[in-house]
Amino acid sequence: MSEKREEMLKTLEDCGAAEMPIEEACLIAEITEADFQADAEARARYMIGHLKTKLAVRQSVARLAKEGVPTMVKIYLDFNKEEGGVDPFPPTAQGEAEEFEGI
User: Quick one: CA dihedral 8, 14, 17, 20, positive or negative?
Assistant: First the structure.
């Protein structure tokens, strides 16, 4: 793979990680949107960057929720509902999550 292509792919991954729109990412990477859409590796690298950021954010939210930060508990539970997951902290008879007493 040429150095220029690898640089372009890295730029697309970085732009994906920064959650930039594809149009802007293509401008920075100096690739047309048509070429981007036709290039499976370019699209994959952009999506990898995007997903790595999503993972990092969710890991941070989960960590802070486990530490009992009320806002992060709500965000964590919203993430879970949004994805169709099971509530990992079901309400107790008192209506509070067992893991997060006092919230």
Answer: negative
Q: Identify which of 37, 29, 24, 38 has the alpha carbon closest to the alpha carbon of residue 5.
A: 29
Q: Which residue matches tokens 């079901």?
A: 90
Whole-Å CA distances, 84 to 18, 41, 73, 80, 103: 26, 29, 17, 6, 24
- Structural contact between residues 55 and 63, judged by C-beta atoms closer than 8 angstroms: no
Q: Using an 8 Å Cβ cutoff, are 22 and 33 in contact?
A: yes
0.85 surpassed by pTM? no
Q: Where are the domains of the chain?
A: 3-87
Q: Which residues of the chain have pLDDT under 70?
A: 83-103
